[in-house]
Amino acid sequence: MPARTYRPSPRNLRLLAAALRRGELVAMPTETVYGLAANALDARACRKIFAAKRRPANDPLIVHVPDLRAAEKLAVFNEAARVLAKKFWPGPLTLVLPKRAVVPGIVTSGQDTVALRSPAHPLARRLLQLAGIPLAAPSANPFGYVSPTTAEHVHAGLGRRIKHILDGGACPVGVESTIVDVSDPHRLRVLRPGAISARQLSDVLRAAGLRATVSQPQRKPQVLAPGLLDQHYSPHTPLSLCTRIASALRHEPGSKTALIFWRKPAGHARKNWHWLSDAGSPEQAARNFYSLLRRTDATGHTRIVAEKAPASAGHLGVAINDRLTRAAGKRRAPGSR
Ligand code: AMP
Ligand code: MG
To answer: Is 222 within a domain?
Structure first.
């Protein structure tokens, strides 16, 4: 039976919270992307996430909590982590901290740290509140494909593998959370760039009188964050990147290639031209990013060429370029890891 999509009525929210408590999976909107949620304290329920997404067991899950109090039951917080949670939660910031024994090993892929986030989306918050349990929730898409930012995207990817999808419209941020490892409170490491920058994190820590360095994401952080693969978020159509599309156009005047511009090009647009923003707004580009990647993937072109975000797009531009680079990443040979 295909998945049922639920409007967010009070009755449906109660029903979905009960399904989560029974150990079922529910796809839910968050402010970043749609998540595929399960009871984070129930190893059997979490195993269903890995099965539905065909996600390898060495890719740990982010656990969603209503607030800092609930988070402290799952992980050992230090002062730096508390300061960041108080400042940025609810919001698109994930903290990696030493886990407590209640968190099943399957959630953390056997690691002794757990990734925690308190989402800001009112529907995710309502489900957390009604269910009364922490929710493990990776993006609600088949592993490796483009992340979902609408209920339709979830249905297209997982509609035959899950039963419940909560429709909350389009996600307001559009790219995944910033992940920061705070297990060493003096040396924080950003593992994945997102809507909150390393600079914002270090400013807040300094203002609180804490001495800490915050390092930028490494190109190859697989050891610390095993899910951050070179190839991820990928459309089926081969994707290549360029810094200025005008130069790419010279090599590709034909219409077999779909072009994704950073901002709307001047002049008369062609049918195979798409753009992430009207006038270069990084926020609008982030909101459109995954939808546009999916739409161009469905147009039947043999290739997609996308323009990278310019440096002026700031940390959201960095987050988008991180996803673009992985989306264009080399596919591994079948069976190889
Ligand atoms: P997502 O699939 O967007 O929910 O992102 C989950 C990602 O969070 C994983 O792929 C890891 O890169 C990262 N992550 C989750 N738990 C941990 C952890 N304990 N330590 C480091 N990174 C983690
Ligand atoms: Mg994901």
So the answer is: no
